[in-house]
Amino acid sequence: MLVIIDDGFTFKATKVDATGKSTAVVVPSEVELAAALQELKASFKGVRDVVVVTRDAVAGSVEFPPGAEDNLGFDERNQLVQFELMSKMPQNDTMIGEVLVGRSLITHAQLKQLLTEQRESRKDRSTGNYQHLGALAVSKGFTTQEEVDKSIDVQRRINQPRLSSSPLGGIGPELKANYGMPAGTEVGFMYQEVRDSWLAALKQVGFRLNAIVPLAGIARHYFGKKFTNGNLVEIYDHGINIVALDGSGSVESIPFGGKPMEVEQLSNLLSRVGSSQKHIWATTDELRDLVLATGEHTNKDSQLLDDPNEAVQILGISTLNAINSMR
Q1: Do 305 and 222 meet the contact criterion of CB atoms below 8 Å apart?
Q2: For 149-168, how does the pLDDT look when each residue is reduced to its tens digit (9 = 90+)?
Q3: Which residues have C-beta within 8 Å of that of residue 194, sequence separation ≥ 6?
Q4: From residue 79, how far is each of 61, 168, 252 by CA, in Å?
Q5: Given this model, what pLDDT does residue 3 score?
Q6: Are 116 and 233 members of one domain?
Q7: pTM confidence score
Q8: Among 172, 217, 264, 269, which residue is least crowded by beta carbons within 10 Å?
Q9: Distance separating alpha carbons of residues 235 and 29, to the nearest angstrom
Q10: In sequence order, what are the residues at sequence separation of 6 or more whose Cβ sits closer than 8 angstroms to the Cβ of residue 56?
């Protein structure tokens, strides 16, 4: 099974076999979906079945009235799921700095430097010193103009409003009840146009879509085999996901909003995680160093997760585990 990760900024892919082993990661150089899939098809010859893991799909839980998940019509279920999960959908306000960091072209520290210099240049635009952030990044030697142009294309695609957005809700199995709380039902939400675009693009190159899975919280299907209580804290360049490991299916997402992540900000976010145990998973070396700088890992109820697999491989294995759990 080929797992394609779409975090909104880059496409990454890894092949996962039936035993749960993940192969090397391939990152296409192209940023447009059709061209990126052509690259992946050339890299993974003979593979047909694909699962897409994307930020354009979100997950949560809804407490339906007894029997409602079976008796409600399609439109009614969609409305309920949309009401619960709409606020979790990515907004059309992504800044170019967020894209540059998300594509691993600059670091959070470099973004902070660029934003500081840009603010200074705004003080007197009459001198002609003002520069756009992308141009500043190129002038500093952080990245190339070609990569900035690609990032602008990515930003345009992310922020482009959909002319007609048809909600599409998915309903999963009933979740286990926690002490003193009723059981909910796991649900997912995305726009039908997004699903249709993936279906068409994958079919065009000879892939077959098996499922679309939300990115936020997916790693619980990997780390949840090691830990069954507390919260898993997924830290990505674009934000944090706080994932309950108690079987409730709860996922809280906190976006960074284009701001560079710093030690104090990260420390404040981690302190908000209301759990006796925090299992912290940083998906890049820079984010891991920031966690270490907060000192959060020294608390007796917190731990920074180390794993021999890299982030995309962990997400690939998580996806296989998630698919198997639904069968």
Answers
A1: no
A2: 999 999 998 888 765 667 66
A3: 54, 56, 57
A4: 14, 9, 21
A5: 97
A6: no
A7: 0.86
A8: 264
A9: 24
A10: 6, 8, 89, 90, 190, 191, 194
